Input
Amino acid sequence: AQSVTQLGSHVSVSEGALVLLRCNYSSSVPPYLFWYVQYPNQGLQLLLKYTTGATLVKGINGFEAEFKKSETSFHLTKPSAHMSDAAEYFCAVSVFGANSKLTFGKGITLSVRP
Amino acid sequence: KAGVTQTPRYLIKTRGQQVTLSCSPISGHRSVSWYQQTPGQGLQFLFEYFSETQRNKGNFPGRFSGRQFSNSRSEMNVSTLELGDSALYLCASSIGTSGGARETQYFGPGTRLLVL
Output
């Protein structure tokens, strides 16, 4: 079975500072990895995903993530935080054969200070 | 294209009642998945339907059931509601034809269910 660990439940950064949200996964087979964002009272929106190929993945709104197999990690970064980035962020994993089932981490709430 | 729509958006029920939630996927999408989101348990997979067949199922009791219609619209039903069923229920759709694991899931805004 697959699992995702997102350490910490809350991250606070200043506007313009680097955003780093950590995600570690566990999977016995090659994983497909996703980052989703959820704004209050809304559903989830895909930021980026890794399936195969290039390990550095660029997503929407200036976010990117790097798949590191040796570290079983898929950390999300953004060079400069904006107030509008304040939201909850979820890392998720799926694997071939699991069809559309996503296994999510607990989520991290990002706050951005002016 | 219109996004994933879910109805109703909010629902209040009492213990012991049953409830039906509806999800309309993005046009052309044949896979519909359901998730339960609670503060304590986070996002948990309920089940997935593809071409009117349940293709995958999470670890929820039999009180939780679903179905999919020929137009890909899906409903989920919860019978004999318990207080712990209070949650945001999210529906997600994807094309589904390649097995689904690599595909982007597009989520609806959710139905917030409160059980009193």
User: Anything to note?
Assistant: The longest strand of chain A covers residues 87-95.
